[in-house]
Write a structure and sequence with these properties.
five-stranded parallel sheet, about 15% strand, NADP, FAD/NAD(P)-binding domain, alpha/beta, FAD, endoplasmic reticulum, 24 strands, globular, about 575 residues, 17 helices, microsome, transmembrane helix, 3 domains
Length: about 575
Amino acid sequence: MSRRVCVIGGGSSGLTSIKSCLEEGLEPTCFESSDDIGGLWRFKENPEADRASIYHSVIINTSKEMMCFSDFPIPAHFPNYMHNSLIMDYFRMYAEHFQLTKHIRFQIRVLQVKPRPDFSRSGQWDVETENKKGEKEKHIFDAVMICIGHHCHPNLPLHDFPGIDTFKGQYFHSRDYKTAEEWRGKRVVVIGIGNSGGDIAVELSRVTKQVFLSTRRGAWILNRVGRDGVPIDFQFMYTNIVLVLFRRVLKMVQSVLPFGLVCRLGENKVNQRFNHSLYSLQPKHRLFSQHPTVNDELPNRILSGTVQVKSNIRRIQGSSIEFDDGTVEDNIDLVVFATGYNFSFPFLPSSMLPVSGNKANLYKYMFPPGLERPTLAVIGLVQPLGAIMPISEMQARWATRVFKGLNTLPSMDCMLKDIKHKEETIAKRYVTSQRHTIQVEYIDYMDQIAYQVGVRPSLLGLLLRDPGVWLCVLLGPCAPYQYRLRGPGQWDGARQAILTTWDRMAGALKTRPLDIPEPKQSSLPLTLTMGAAALALGYYWNIHNHPSLLKALDPTTWQDKIKPYLPGLW
């Protein structure tokens, strides 16, 4: 008999978990408390309790080639950075293509998940649910996948703002913000300079009399639009050190450079766009010591004066707000708390997976280390610089193979050591913040999980077998298709998807035919790039006991074979 799996949540993580179950021959049942799929990305005018909620104008910060599921590319005509409504369209296409919706039970809330009395032998779970009529039902499942995300419970730290009880205007958390129009002509303070805080400040500044953006630490601001107008996380050329987050070759270089030097190079690059100190934004921490804020418009709004950057709030009195630098702004009508979220697992026994300070003891952010049977997995509880969708998919692929017994987890001691090491690494690198407790590096984390599944790309194998794809994988964006080239779940379309990544990116931009010949450019940059790639890869493989690879890395030998595959490289 097939093993029954309970999937809690029908957002992006829930959808890909259903699909992974089906791929492994498992029988998934997904319980979704609302009446539709989409989770965080489904806009609703009125927020629902204990559910993620977004504002109407939200556009994703990751380009479509980096956010898609690994065997289902987003259509070429979709814009590179998609509005939330288009993300929903993509989810519906994905669900329809793989016939996922029939496995979802809508408007069903999970009340309780607990191990059965014979759990040590069976690994099974008792799950209690409730429908919209209040009718309860009990189920038995062989495994559970928790896919509820980490944007459900708004963090509203009113105790940190003395005098908030005297405030004469209105205040709310950013999850309750929907549109700017009702605040036309008002004076607004936005607290927090994360992605939501930056977006809301910019949007409000178009209609309000004045917006004040309050930040304790400041922030480094990245932009979506990179060199030559190409999405920042997509560019083949690695002249921007910020791309270390999305390029394999740069990750190799980063591994041998001091952290401070890598940060300095990145900070110099982002300061070329605008001087963060001049704009009162520069923080004390380094570029890669905090989750960066992505916002193309904020510098322009600061430059035009519609947004003023302020320090942290010292106190509130009536309609006046005093900041830490002693300045006071009067007649404030609205305060928006863009102060993040807390996560929890209210349906689990409190002792099974306790959460404190947004920290949960999970091996690879997925598996509770103390369970006698590895039949519970949390999917999507990570904070990458990039999209969650490919990471959730990779987690689901691993979890379902663990459920089937095809992969095994290490001992509890090993898992606890890994968890402790990760906590120490985060504490050493990042500023102390609840948002960093689940922070991961996109490539590193994807490769770690892919290794467990057996799908991590083999650079040596690709170089010798398919040099065109090898160069795309090494120098191009680390697109999810790379993890379908080999191993379990291999997809025949992965190679073509990798080679046509540029075409889909450009296809969304070429909306008007031009009678302008493409300029011919020197192949020297390609040769230099190949040389640099050869040195980096040679060093990487050399330290992994593959010195014979150096003989294969002659750029002149491979240039003609590779050049046709990378139209944007030279």
